Amino acid sequence: MAAGIPIEVTGLSKRFGPVTAVDDLSFTVQPGRVTGFLGPNGAGKTTTLRVLLGLVRASSGTATFGGTRYRDLARPLETVGAALDANFHPGRSAKQHLAVYATAAGIPKSRVPAVLTMVGLSEFAGRRVGGFSLGMRQRLSLAYTLLGDPGVLVLDEPINGLDPEGIRWIRGFLQSLAKEGRTVLVSSHLLSEVQQSVDDVVIISRGRLVRSGPLSTLQIGAAPRTVVESPDPHRLAAALDQAGLEYTEEGAGFIVEEPDPGRVGHAAFVGGVELSALHQVAAGLEDSFLSLVGDGGSEGTPGLEPVRVGGGEVR
Ligand SMILES: Nc1ncnc2c1ncn2[C@@H]1O[C@H](COP(=O)(O)OP(=O)(O)O)[C@@H](O)[C@H]1O
Ligand SMILES: [Mg+2]
């Protein structure tokens, strides 16, 4: 296996005529970790990856593998495994498809059955790709990226189209690739899709960096809340109203938009309400993600300022 090397994106911008798809984007991706490249549809993920892989030219800025552009890599397939715009000849079998690329890159043919086994497609090796499901095509793309046993993997929405079993499988698989020391960059428009398998996140919205760093730091942005329960929920609701606290009903109790349980407890005390539970809860991860990227569809997100590198960025 080739050594994992960092991916470095610096001041990257890409304009398509009037559309700015990527806007002064900077981030790094470390070896030995799975990094989720996240953002709503249209955020600029695929464009960033296409620039990184030399498929389109940057308007400005750079995207490199440890300082080397993709097109300057001596042995690209053995350095970076990437599956973008996967185009399969429908008449070819999975095995034939991979053999074509192996031959072109001077990779021993013995690698073909090896990678098909790794992605769980060995029993379909001789089957024509035209009859493959979306999930099987995703696995075949992954097999292709592994042909050269590269230290870096760049995967665009690899979980899209997988069935639940496939999703469980790919999560563990990506983690095992990172544990071997590889750099693993995986894009997704859904945090929930990757949150169980990523160590780090790079979040973009409208082509700009919103946040990057370990997944565990994501919750910092959204305020914790207080969970409160009473044997007499009606009186509790009245006490919360009386104190001017915002809340929503949740199961047997209420979630109060107040980080300090002491203030909620005091409101109950003032109202003479018995409590059966009172504690703080962290904001949900998906809530944090959505509050960071906005809804992604509308123009402008009030109150959302992109966090710039060198500014308040987490890492
Ligand atoms: N070849 C292109 N020509 C014009 N606009 C493009 C092209 N590719 C992408 N875009 C635009 O750039 C923006 C980002 O797209 P994309 O990188 O595909 O986002 P994502 O992968 O995050 O969904 C979108 O507004 C999209 O319409
Ligand atoms: Mg995309």
From TrEMBL:
<feature type="region of interest" description="Disordered">
    <location>
        <begin position="296"/>
        <end position="315"/>
    </location>
</feature>
<dbReference type="GO" id="GO:0005524">
    <property type="term" value="F:ATP binding"/>
</dbReference>
<dbReference type="Pfam" id="PF00005">
    <property type="entry name" value="ABC_tran"/>
</dbReference>
<protein>
    <submittedName>
        <fullName>ATP-binding cassette domain-containing protein</fullName>
    </submittedName>
</protein>
<keyword id="KW-0067">ATP-binding</keyword>
<dbReference type="InterPro" id="IPR003593">
    <property type="entry name" value="AAA+_ATPase"/>
</dbReference>
<dbReference type="InterPro" id="IPR003439">
    <property type="entry name" value="ABC_transporter-like_ATP-bd"/>
</dbReference>
<comment type="similarity">
    <text>Belongs to the ABC transporter superfamily.</text>
</comment>
<keyword id="KW-0813">Transport</keyword>
<dbReference type="InterPro" id="IPR027417">
    <property type="entry name" value="P-loop_NTPase"/>
</dbReference>
<dbReference type="GO" id="GO:0016887">
    <property type="term" value="F:ATP hydrolysis activity"/>
</dbReference>
<keyword id="KW-0547">Nucleotide-binding</keyword>
<feature type="domain" description="ABC transporter">
    <location>
        <begin position="7"/>
        <end position="231"/>
    </location>
</feature>
